[in-house]
Structure to design on (287 residues):
């Protein structure tokens, strides 16, 4: 297993942080990394050919994550950030034990922030994330007196990916999803998917002013900063231009991401390597 601290002597090299999501949702994390870690160079991967992840089985999600991590290791990243709640809920602990690089997920940093904001906590997430109960368990581990209500929102990711945020239909769907949480008089709401902050104008208009919105991107970026400092991996040189890759249509991703990035990035399509179960033993033994 790699000794992470031994990498600190290379911290001034332009080694990248890898970020992945199923699509444009992870751009919310990317923007926070730009804000909190401006010297870090980043590689972004969107698994757009297999989007959305929210209705996939746990076995499929684990396979997808392993394939992405194998490819990211080949690119020489120094850290990987799962900018996907579904992956964080279902695969994080498994792949952290298999891959010899720091891998961070969204659930725990977000849960810690939520219990600071309230005790009646709502979670909107993909059906798979809700079924995992990852957020409920994480919140209760931090504060056993908190109450948690979860709602699966299967239509949100497609609506964001299709740039239909301001459609009347989106508002109707959002109200349907939020009503059970409003009935419980929640005081904090977790965006249980990194796509959902893109829906903030709609969600905020439907929520009482007293409800605090918890954006996982903010707290994951802060956790990444702490981890880089702990491992001596923080960059001390100016950041290189972010590299963007997808498994689907690069032109479509570039066009959809432009509204949030402020420019249409250059995007390359790649074919991920196939991960075989026998590779797990190899990865654990790599020195």
């Amino acid at each position: 297993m790699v000794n992470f601290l031994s990498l600190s002597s290379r911290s001034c090299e332009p080694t990248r942080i890898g970020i992945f999501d199923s699509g444009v949702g992870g751009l919310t994390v990317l923007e926070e990394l730009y804000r909190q870690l401006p010297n870090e160079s980043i590689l972004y991967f969107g698994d757009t050919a297999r989007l959305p992840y929210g209705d996939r089985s746990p076995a499929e999600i684990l396979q997808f994550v392993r394939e992405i991590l194998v490819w990211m290791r080949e690119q020489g990243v120094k850290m990987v950030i799962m900018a996907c709640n579904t992956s964080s809920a279902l695969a994080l602990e498994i792949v952290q034990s298999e891959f010899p690089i720091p891998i961070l997920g969204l659930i725990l940093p977000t849960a810690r922030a939520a219990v600071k904001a309230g005790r009646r906590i709502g979670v909107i997430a993909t059906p798979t994330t809700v079924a995992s109960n990852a957020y409920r368990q994480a919140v209760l581990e931090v504060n056993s007196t908190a109450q948690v209500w979860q709602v699966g929102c299967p239509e949100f990711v497609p609506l964001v990916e299709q740039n239909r945020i301001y459609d009347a239909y989106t508002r109707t769907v959002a109200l349907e999803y939020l009503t059970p949480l409003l009935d419980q008089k929640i005081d904090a709401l977790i965006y249980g998917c990194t796509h959902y902050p893109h829906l903030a104008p709609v969600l905020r208009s439907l929520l009482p002013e007293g409800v605090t919105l918890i954006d996982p991107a903010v707290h994951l970026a802060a956790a990444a900063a702490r981890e880089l400092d702990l491992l001596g991996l923080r960059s001390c040189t100016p950041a290189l231009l972010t590299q963007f890759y997808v498994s689907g249509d690069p032109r479509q991703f570039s066009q959809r991401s432009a509204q949030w990035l402020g420019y249409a990035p250059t995007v390359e399509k790649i074919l991920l390597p196939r991960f075989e179960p026998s590779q797990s033993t190899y990865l654990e033994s790599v020195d």
The chain has two domains: 4-105+218-275, 107-216.
